[in-house]
Amino acid sequence: MKFSLRVDYVDGTTVETTAVTADIIDFEAEWSRSILVALDELRATDAYWLAWKSLERTGDTDKGWRDWLTIVDNVKMLAMEGEPRPLARPSRRRSTSSGSPTTSESPSPS
User: Fold this and answer.
1) How far apart are CA 78 and CA 21, in angstroms?
2) How far apart are CA 56 and CA 10, in angstroms?
């Protein structure tokens, strides 16, 4: 999953950046929130932080998070690449007394 973002600075300059897997994992660790939850209830902080983290990772800013915010006018999410989907949970199977797996389906009547 990737996010393309545009950053407008207070001095009138604009840059585009892409938040990639490393930035998304750092987001989840920093904010203790899943990116999937963040997408459902997007906060300004989420988009701004992803843009800053991406720019920091690429060396396009040397400012810390709070200092960077003082020079930013706006951040806009332009696009998302890759579909967010929760990880599938493995199905649970029961074992019979013989140790072979069985499903939870009822036997068909004879």
Assistant:
1) 17
2) 18
